[in-house]
Amino acid sequence: MTPEQWMVTMVAGFAAGVLNAVAGGGSFLTLPALVFAGLPPLSANATGTVALLPGYIASAAGFRRELASIAPRGLMATLLLSLCGGAAGAGLLLFSGDHAFRSIVPYLLLLATVLFAASPWLLAQRMGREAGPLVGAVALAMVAIYGGYFNGGLGILLLAMYGLLGEKSLNRANALKNLVSSVLTCIAVGVYAVGGVVDWHKAVPMMGSTIVGGYVGARFGQRLSPQVLRALIVLTGLGMSLIFFRKV
């Protein structure tokens, strides 16, 4: 990497860690930064997902008490569906190849941006009663496949899904969101690694910067205006979508 590319990836990793700690949307920065550093979009997506993995694991660990309150059978089903869906999505990414991913990534970025912008409304929705286990299983499997294929907007999608399925506790929904995100991302990273699409020379330094950014975001993020932060993330997502549309 050139010094400019190295600086861009480090700053993007730090900023992504801050964003994920306070609001989400870190992948809006890691993907374009890694493309700027010379990676094809597919490899940039996989490498950025590796860089963000520690944050998912740390977030899941922070909700141990809420996860302990969930019935073991339901927890095991969640883990199994997350593993299978994440593996399927990552396998689909490798199977489809870089050309297909390059064609679809602007739409995925735009979808993730719209989901993020609409998240206050989505998270306020409730079905009024819990959905059946089959509906819940299918919904989780579909979201896990999406997460294994493209990580952008995953947290918002999971929170919205649990709300629509009737989960009334936001803390429990957050705990499940972090658990599913970390599990499916772990298996997806394993598939990416076996497929040889992770650039470890870029992933490891960026991982360090995301960890530092996550700590700073968790420590000082409450001082930021949520409205301003949300607007900046949406504008960033729209800008990145436009750039990738022009490159296709």
From TrEMBL:
The chain crosses the membrane at residues 75-97, 103-123, 135-159, 179-198, 228-245. It comes from Niveibacterium umoris. It is found in: Cell membrane. It comes from the Bacteria. This is Probable membrane transporter protein. It holds the Pfam family TauE. Keywords: Cell membrane, Membrane, Transmembrane, Transmembrane helix, Transport. Its main location: membrane. GO terms for cellular component: plasma membrane.
